[in-house]
Amino acid sequence: MGLKMASFSNLAMCHLRLGNTERARDCCTKALNIDPTNVKALFRRGKCHSQLGGLDEAKADLERVSIHAVKTRSRCFERISRSAASVNVPAFVPVSHTLTAEHMFLCCVLCSRF
Predict the structure, then answer these.
(1) CA within 13 Å, CB half, 42
(2) Which fold has domain 2-110?
(3) Which of 17, 37, 45, 76 has the most CB within a 10 Å radius?
(4) Euclidean distance between CA atoms 83 and 74, whole angstroms
(5) pTM of the model
């Protein structure tokens, strides 16, 4: 199951980089059907929703990211913080603090390379 979930999540990233946002969103949803707490898939789907104009859906996914990332302290959470710092998002806080969904939404909007 873990390999299948990782494959869908990685395929979603490939689709995102190719500009296939709807396909990326669908792959993230498939990954999340296997593991609903996967931080990478949640973040990527939130990014897809924001690019497709689904701001409420994006916020819901990013709120879930903030909950699960704090619990697991995953590498994805740290990448989100570094991505935000790279575009000088002033509202971001250090990795040692809790990121809110609003912070991650800003990162989704401003960071195109996650």
Answers:
(1) 23
(2) 1.25.40
(3) 45
(4) 15
(5) 0.65
